[in-house]
Amino acid sequence: MDVEIIGFIAAILTTSAFVPQVLKVWKSKSTMGVSVSMYLVMLLGVFLWGVYGYIIESMSIMIANTVTGFLQLMILVLIFKNKNKNKD
Fold first, then answer.
1. Which residues constitute the domain of residue 72?
2. How far is CA 42 from the centre of its chain?
3. How confident is the model at residue 53 (pLDDT cuts 50, 70, 90)?
4. What is the pTM of this model?
5. Residue 70 — pLDDT band, cuts 50, 70, 90?
6. Count of domains in the chain?
7. Domain presence at residue 22
8. Secondary structure of 6-68 as H, E, C letters
């Protein structure tokens, strides 16, 4: 069994864990209780994991962290967008 398959399975599971949060924020248009600092720290970690994946040439790490980073960016954009709406 190719070890990269384990990486892809782990990538699918950990990345998909962010989907419910994105959907909840998207549908409810509410980011109350969502931690900006947690998402910023996670985004930095995901970015560094992506760099690491690139260095060791692991497609599963690169793909998973690209998708996860995109999902985290979506949450951050919605957080800041909703904060600006609340100021109006």
1. 3-82
2. 7
3. very high
4. 0.76
5. very high
6. 1
7. yes
8. HHHHHHHHHHHCCHHHHHHHHHHCCCCCCCHHHHHHHHHHHHHHHHHHHHCCCHHHHHHHHHH
